[in-house]
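Because showing beats explaining, we let one protein speak, sequence and backbone structure tokens together, and leave readers to judge.
___
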Amino acid sequence: MFLFSVPVTCTRRVLSTRKLGLEGNLTSDASRTGKKRETRLHIEVSGEGNDLWRLEPVFELLRDPSRGAVGILPTDTSYAFVCNLHSRAGVERIYALKKTPPSVRKPLSLLCRNHSTIQRYTTVMDKRTFKVLRSLLPGPYTFILPATHEVPRVMIENRTHRKMWKRREVGIRWPREPHCQAVMDALDGVALLASSVPDIDSEEDELAGDPAKILAQWERQVDFIISAGSLSSDMKSTVVDVLRGWQVLREGLGYKEFREVLALEYGSEFAAQEGLETSSRDESVSA
């Protein structure tokens, strides 16, 4: 089924900034060595992006990778855990929050502020690939591309289970959300590592979209939460494996626009591939 790319509808709450408690179950290298972690922050923002100045404390937390800061911010599809990509402690904390065993860890996504940042961390293989990405980004997409050596090893290699998990590829995102964009801009070309925030009260694989529930579930385990109202869309990002011929791994927001852009760029090649994919789908359905 084709899905149109639609903006996420958000219900905004009254602006406020307040400090959260200092208790926490996860610790960084700083706290283990006796240093006190900064007071956690809850920052409520509007939808117009005219209150970006409120995010300055978040900028300070994320600019220094040695702090191991982890927080939650809105994207164009859902709320996400984020940290400075070059903070090993932050990366490990996100894996711990997701309760991902070392044996089954997979690379998380990178949030990139522009095409230059994407090119810093990935290899865009040819001009046609670049044109497709330029047409669709920023937007609700996750593109899997070859990783450069700028991507830290903790992201792409499991030291304990090297035979099970070692890859030089990574998913990149460039969300169209003003507060997320402001946080990315503040790192001046350094990507954010990101992973969606789950709803721990749900038995299904559901994402947490209610800021009140996110605050109740996660405020003791992260350093900051940026609340931008309820994200009412139940759609995730469209995930595309560029390495293996624009293979769609998940149909989500923006899927129809992606197909249209690909058809314009690849023409008859795309039409032939589309026919094969349609036949394969028909066979799988009938089986």
